[in-house]
Design a protein that fits this description.
mainly alpha, three-stranded antiparallel beta sheet, RNA-binding, 12 strands, 4 domains
RNA sequence: GACCGCUUAGCUCAGCUGGUAGAGCAACUGACUUUUAAUCAGUAGGCCGAGGGUUCGAAUCCCUCAGCGGUCACCA
């Protein structure tokens, strides 16, 4: 890249560039000894990946995209799984939960997989994480805490922490309540007898031998090495340990972890390292501005978003000012999709400097794939779907061709995906509100007439001919000119189960003449009204 | 108790390297259509929470206050 480009990027004020510059500053503008700048995200595998997981990885990727723009130093993303953590309670909706019940407090990676598909419960959830991330095409390296501990990768850092045991302990204590302070230890020994991760006071530390002494569950004084996976660090020091051992250059976290990360930063200093750059993103709220909690079931899940909109739009949402709390509910989806689309559209015509202020730049790493092109907004598609009674993608495409003759599912695959989401939206939000009624005698006569007229139409009849038949059927069955509106409304209510609808001629053309005849006959037979 | 965020049009929000207030939706008007909806074009709408300060100039920077909300203090 040219120096001009770099300069423009160095002055860019968007948050990912602010963050990227902080990384560059941390590493002093030169490649670290490990050869790359390390970006980390953390994951707790006692649950499944969720919208927060996505947000963190997406946002970290945005910072990396910015970093690559201002520096030639390689950048690497590690998604770290805290899979040696002890299982504290049994998650809901898990088969064979008695397996988990009988293994509480043991490291996740030694608990048998209740799904029976992986080496352990931890491995199972790690695999789910990877599947999840791979779906969106994230570029990352997976790292297991258990492996880091067992392989000795953390040994040096653990011994270091043992030498500084008291300092580390003192760093954490101010953050804790009185009760917890009494028993707190940065080291959690794993009982050689039960295999459980124990939260017990440490009786002795032996830095020279590299061991600690504690009282096991049966009361026996036990001495074990802190290295090799015999001891796990409590989560706050564990975070610091990881930062120190891996030399993490960047990690963001939620505001809920703010004080914890400050403590972790202090611990890294105690160990002689330097804490990573990073900021704290705010949490998501529901439409009333209240905190999203799983037990309340408010807010929006990842699955819900992805049912009605593409993941790119969620990534766009994640781009928007992460430092302030945002309401995450259904109504923000269409807007997010359309704003994403307008950024995509704007990119090719923008100057370099403007492009760096374009959200799409961060989502796609600077280059927008041609496949993302769409000439139609999502809001329009949603309106089209409900106005035109369109419950299948092909019909919707028929309408799209009227607006934009050049677009096809093949040359606009992103639009084709949007069509699918619009149909889904129609099925879930429009269809259930339909209420069909039976026609009165005049309506019935007119509709029967309409069906006959349609049957009599020549095969190559055009839209105008169809529209004319609709009017004629009304006029010749007792509707005066000023009553035609009622005739159309009757069609919508009896045939489509709604009070409004598309121009009926257009509807027949797209829905199909034969299909329309069937629709009329079914309605007159009471198939819809009965069902409703 | 400690720390943080928000307050801008009827609604949801953008604008935060200080330079005559913006978008979407809603409303209203018009065009088009042998109904409506949709679509397109346009109009209107704001003491930018309150008070003070810095400045030639503040929605924007600083201080104080108010209202709302959040996080941590048991676990991670």
């Amino acid at each position: 890249m040219s120096n001009d480009d770099k300069n423009t990027a160095m002055n860019c004020k968007t948050w990912p560039f602010e963050e990227a510059r902080a990384v560059l500053k941390r590493i002093g503008n030169t490649a670290p000894d490990k050869g790359y700048a390390l970006f980390e995200t953390g994951y707790g595998p006692s649950g499944l990946p969720h919208i927060g997981t996505f947000g963190e990885v997406a946002r970290t990727t945005m910072v990396m995209n910015a970093f690559r723009k201002i520096s030639d130093i390689p950048a690497k993303l590690i998604c770290f799984s805290d899979d040696m953590d002890g299982l504290r309670k049994v998650p809901l909706n898990i088969p064979n939960s008695e397996i988990l019940e009988s293994n509480l407090e043991k490291p996740l990676t030694v608990i048998p997989d209740p799904f029976g598909t992986h080496e352990s419960f931890g491995h199972h959830n790690n695999a789910r994480l990877r599947d999840f991330l791979d779906t969106f095409g994230f570029d990352y390296e997976f790292l297991s805490s258990t492996e880091c501990y067992k392989s000795g990768r953390f040994d040096e850092a653990l011994l270091n922490m043992l030498r500084n045991y008291e300092k580390v302990r003192q760093a954490v204590l101010p953050l804790l309540g009185e009760e917890r302070q009494k028993t707190y230890s940065p080291f959690l020994p794993i009982s050689p007898k039960s295999g459980k991760v124990l939260q017990v006071p440490i009786l002795e530390t032996n830095p020279d031998a590299g061991t600690i002494v504690f009282e096991d569950e049966d009361g026996e004084k036990t001495e074990i090495p802190v290295t090799g996976g015999h001891v796990k660090a409590q989560w706050r020091p564990d975070w610091a340990l990881r930062w120190y051992a891996l030399d993490v250059d960047y990690e963001m976290a939620g505001v809920d972890l703010k004080s914890a990360s400050q403590i972790a930063g202090k611990i890294v200093s105690i160990l002689g390292g330097k804490k990573p750059a990073g900021f704290h993103y705010d949490l998501f709220l529901d439409e009333k501005g209240e905190k999203i909690s799983k037990s309340k079931g408010n807010g929006l899940t990842m699955e819900e978003w992805l049912t009605y909109a593409p993941h790119e739009s969620l990534a766009y949402y994640m781009y928007l000012r992460p430092s302030s709390a945002k309401k995450l509910h259904f109504d923000v989806i269409p807007k997010a999709v359309d704003e994403y689309i307008s950024f995509i559209k704007a990119m090719p015509t923008q100057e370099e400097e403007k492009q760096l202020q374009n959200a799409a730049w961060y989502i796609h790493g600077g280059t927008i794939p041609n496949s993302q092109y769409t000439p139609i907004s999502f809001a329009l598609l949603l309106n089209l779907a409900s106005a035109a009674n369109t419950d299948n993608a092909e019909t919707l495409w028929g309408y799209i061709r009227k607006h934009k003759p050049d677009a096809t599912p093949e040359n606009a695959p992103f639009l084709d995906r949007l069509v699918g989401y619009a149909v889904k939206y129609y099925e879930d939000f429009v269809l259930p509100t339909k209420t069909y009624r039976m026609p009165d005698d005049r309506e019935r006569a007119a509709m029967e007439d309409l069906a006959k007229r349609l049957e009599a139409l020549p095969k190559d009849a055009d839209l105008d001919a169809m529209q004319t038949e609709v009017f004629s059927a009304g006029k010749e069955n007792g509707y005066e000119k000023n009553e035609l509106r009622e005739w159309f409304q009757a069609l919508y209510q009896v045939l489509l189960g709604q009070n409004q609808g598309p121009r009926f001629g257009s509807f027949i053309e797209l829905y199909g003449v034969q299909e329309s005849i069937t629709l009329i006959r079914d309605a007159l037979d009471g198939k819809f009204a009965k069902a409703a």
